């Protein structure tokens, strides 16, 4: 079970044990982390779970799907090279110690 740190725009930092196979959006909403809304429930249809992945996560994640790239075009906050949708990131042991930085807004 990897430990993932969520760094909110206000500076709050929360580290969560994320069950293997859970999306990082699921883990955030289950643990009351502000900054990830996940309005579509994780179906890659709203972009309200936008996040910025650190170098560790970027190195182990597969490339975003075409659907994720389409949704990333609609994010409310600045889109960066390390922008991803946390609903599309499934936890694996290789992600242990990774950090997601959350944008200032999702809508």
TrEMBL record:
Lineage top rank: taxon: Bacteria
Pfam families in UniProt: Fer2
InterPro entries: 2Fe-2S_ferredoxin-like_sf, 2Fe-2S_ferredoxin-type, Adrenodoxin-like, Adrenodoxin_Fe-S_BS, Beta-grasp_dom_sf
Co-factor requirement: [2Fe-2S] cluster
Domain 2Fe-2S ferredoxin-type: 2-106
PROSITE patterns: 2FE2S_FER_2, ADX
Family designation: Belongs to the adrenodoxin/putidaredoxin family.
PANTHER family: FERREDOXIN-2, MITOCHONDRIAL, FERREDOXIN/ADRENODOXIN
Name under which the protein is recorded: 2Fe-2S iron-sulfur cluster binding domain-containing protein
